[in-house]
Backbone:
C-alpha cells in the first residue's frame, strides 16, 4: 500500500472522508471496550505507532531487544508477519523461510533473536513463553485489544507526525490521537526536530531518538548512488543516504512491502549501470529479494541513537529485568 498524498495535508478530500474516519475510530474504540485482554505469563513490550506505516517501529524494537539480551534476558520478537501467507504461530528461520511466507520485517528481526509470527498474538506469546522466552517484544500490535501489554511504546516520526491528523480513510491515523496517547506508557519521538509539536500534549514520558546509518555508509560517501525502496516512507531512506554524503543521482519509490519482480530488478540494475551508480536499498527491501536478485545491490543498515540512553536503559531495567513488569 502507498499512502495517498492527501494524508499528508488537510483539504477538501480529507474533509469529505472525515465522517468515515470518525465512524471508523469510534467503531474501533467500541470494539476494544468490549474485550477483556488476556494477561500473559511473561512481560510483553509493545512497540507500535498511530499512523499507517513508516514510523520506525522495527528499528526501535530491534534496539530494545538487543539491550535486553545484553542484560542476559532471553528475549523473543513477535510480529503479525505482514506480507507473508503463514498464519503461525511459526518460529522464523531465515535459512528456510522467505518474505512471502513470514514477511520482511520478521526475517530481519530473526537475525538478532528468536522471532515468531502469529496472526493471533496471544498464540504467539504462548508459543514464545513455552520456548523459554522471558520477555516478548511485539513489533506493532498497539491497536490489538486482545493482549495485555506490560509496556507500550508509541513511536512517532518527528517529521511526519500524524499527517493531517485525521483517522483512516480521511488520514493516516489508525485511531484518534487522544485514545492512543491515553493507552501509551511511553512516547518515542524518532527523528530530528527542534521542538515537540503542540498536538503532542501528554504527561507521558517522552524519549527522543534518531536513526543513524550503519558503518557501510562510509562506502557511499562521495559516490554516485541509485536508491530504491518500498518502505512506509522511502524519502526518509533517500535523505539518510544523502546525509551520509552519497550523491543520489536517481531514486525509485515502491509501495510498502512491495515484492519486486525480476523485470523490475533488471531495470533498476540497468539504470544504475547507465548512470555509473551503486544500486542501494534497505535491509527490509532486500529481505524480499531472491538470492540472485540481491547480487550487485548494496544495503544501508540502520541503528538507533537515543538522546538519553541512560533513561531508556533505566526504563527497561525497571519494567522488565527479572520479570518485574
Residues:
Amino acid at each position: 500500500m502507498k499512502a495517498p498524498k492527501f494524508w499528508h495535508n488537510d483539504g477538501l478530500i480529507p474533509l469529505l472522508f472525515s465522517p468515515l474516519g470518525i465512524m471508523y475510530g469510534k467503531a474501533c474504540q467500541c470494539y476494544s471496550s468490549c474485550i477483556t485482554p488476556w494477561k500473559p505469563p511473561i512481560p510483553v513490550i509493545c512497540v507500535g505507532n498511530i499512523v499507517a506505516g513508516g514510523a520506525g517501529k522495527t528499528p526501535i524494537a530491534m534496539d530494545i531487544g538487543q539491550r535486553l539480551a545484553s542484560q542476559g534476558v532471553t528475549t523473543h520478537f513477535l510480529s503479525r508477519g505482514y506480507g507473508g501467507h503463514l498464519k503461525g504461530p511459526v518460529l522464523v528461520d531465515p535459512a528456510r523461510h522467505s518474505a512471502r511466507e513470514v514477511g520482511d520485517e520478521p526475517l530481519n528481526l530473526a537475525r538478532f533473536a528468536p522471532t515468531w509470527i502469529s496472526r493471533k498474538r496471544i498464540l504467539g506469546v504462548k508459543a514464545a513463553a513455552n520456548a523459554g522466552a522471558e520477555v516478548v517484544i511485539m513489533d506493532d500490535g498497539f491497536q490489538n485489544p486482545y493482549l495485555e501489554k506490560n509496556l507500550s511504546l508509541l513511536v512517532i516520526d518527528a517529521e511526519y507526525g500524524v499527517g493531517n491528523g485525521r483517522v483512516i480513510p480521511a488520514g493516516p491515523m489508525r485511531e484518534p490521537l487522544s485514545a492512543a496517547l491515553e493507552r501509551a506508557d511511553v512516547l518515542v519521538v524518532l527523528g530530528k526536530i527542534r521542538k515537540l509539536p503542540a498536538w503532542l500534549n501528554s504527561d507521558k514520558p517522552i524519549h527522543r531518538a534518531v536513526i543513524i546509518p550503519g558503518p557501510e555508509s562510509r562506502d557511499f560517501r562521495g559516490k554516485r548512488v541509485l536508491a530504491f525502496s518500498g518502505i512506509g516512507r522511502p524519502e526518509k531512506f533517500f535523505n539518510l543516504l544523502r546525509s551520509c554524503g552519497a550523491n543520489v543521482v536517481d531514486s525509485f519509490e515502491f509501495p510498502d512491502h512491495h515484492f519486486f519482480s525480476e523485470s523490475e530488478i533488471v531495470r533498476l540494475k540497468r539504470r544504475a549501470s547507465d548512470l555509473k551508480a551503486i544500486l542501494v536499498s534497505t535491509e527490509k527491501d532486500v529481505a524480499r529479494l531472491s538470492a540472485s536478485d540481491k547480487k550487485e545491490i548494496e544495503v544501508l543498515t540502520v541503528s538507533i541513537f537515543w538522546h538519553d540512553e541512560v533513561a531508556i536503559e533505566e526504563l527497561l531495567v525497571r519494567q522488565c529485568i527479572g520479570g518485574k513488569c
In short: The mean pLDDT is 89. The two ends are 36 Å apart (CA to CA). The chain is about 35% helix and 20% strand.
